[in-house]
UniProtKB/TrEMBL annotation:
Record domain Phosphoribosyltransferase: where: 143-239
UniProt name for this protein: ComF family protein
Entry's family note: Belongs to the ComF/GntX family.
Domain Double zinc ribbon: 7-68
CDD domains listed in its UniProt record: PRTases_typeI
Organism expressing this protein natively: uncultured Desulfobacterium sp
Entries under Pfam families matching the protein: DZR_2, Pribosyltran
Gene3D superfamilies reported in the protein's UniProt record: 3.40.50.2020
Length: 245
């Protein structure tokens, strides 16, 4: 921290990125102690492919019923946090209240988590789940892209946010039943130029995943376009399938 930063902290005391209470930045970064403690890391037992948390601790990590029945097109989806506690508050502010500065702190948490995941080697391309232009106009930004930027710069990997596109507008997944969610995103994405993704390992980045249908559909078109493997990195995984996102 420079003298100028310290001076700015005295004039404008730093506030928590989530609850806006005053903080001691040296202790818990951009969050207050309570908010920092409220980030719940995703922990076992979870599905080894889609990361859905299991309610029962009777068994360790294993495949969930959905992945057993119909294996996703992606190799695995990694999630930094459970969709509960501080991360829910943070995502709502980030996504629906235009607090885009949260991409800095949340993106950093995601990037630090990404350092520890195993995603093969070489030819890595980071891609956000694209938003339809209509949704992009409404919100003004793609929250997935803001996070993907942080992850790419942290991992020193290439970022591509133009090749994977929305082919059509889809209704929000929230509120749809399981089979409706799958149908809703079927054919919703396209790869503009397959040569960009050919033989590449793709890391798809998004903020929240519930059933994983959107990630799976993105992975399906990427694999069909010649990608070597697709992994997913999400900030928070919802175990409750009826959760609002
Ligand atoms: Zn706070
Ligand atoms: Zn699963």
């Amino acid at each position: 921290m420079t003298i100028l930063d310290k001076l700015i902290d005295i004039i404008y005391p730093p506030r928590c990125h989530v609850c806006h209470g005053f903080i001691d930045r040296a202790e818990t970064g951009p969050f207050c102690k309570d908010c920092y403690a409220g980030f719940a890391k995703l922990s076992s037992p979870i599905c080894t492919v889609c990361s859905t948390p299991f309610a029962s601790e009777a068994q360790g990590d294993h495949l969930c019923e959905d992945c057993l029945r119909d294996r996703p097109a992606y190799r695995s989806a990694f999630a930094a946090f459970h969709y509960r506690g501080t991360v829910v508050k943070a995502i709502h502010q980030f996504k629906y209240r235009a607090k885009t500065y949260l991409s800095e702190s949340l993106g950093r948490l995601m990037a630090e988590y990404a350092e520890g995941i195993s995603i093969g080697s070489g030819n890595l391309l980071i891609m956000p789940v694209p938003l339809h232009p209509k949704r992009l106009r409404e919100r003004g930004y793609n929250q997935g892209l803001l996070l993907a930027r942080r992850v790419a710069s942290h991992l020193k990997a290439e970022l591509d946010f133009l090749t994977l596109r929305r082919a059509r507008y889809t209704a929000p997944q929230a509120g749809l039943k399981k089979d409706e969610r799958k149908r809703n995103v079927r054919g919703a994405f396209k790869v503009k130029d397959p040569s960009v993704v050919e033989d590449k390992t793709i890391l798809l980045v998004d903020d929240v995943s519930t059933t994983g249908n959107t990630l799976n559909e993105c992975a399906r078109v990427l694999m069909r376009s010649g990608s070597r493997e697709v992994f997913c990195l999400i900030l928070a995984k919802a175990g409750d399938r009826s959760v609002f996102i």
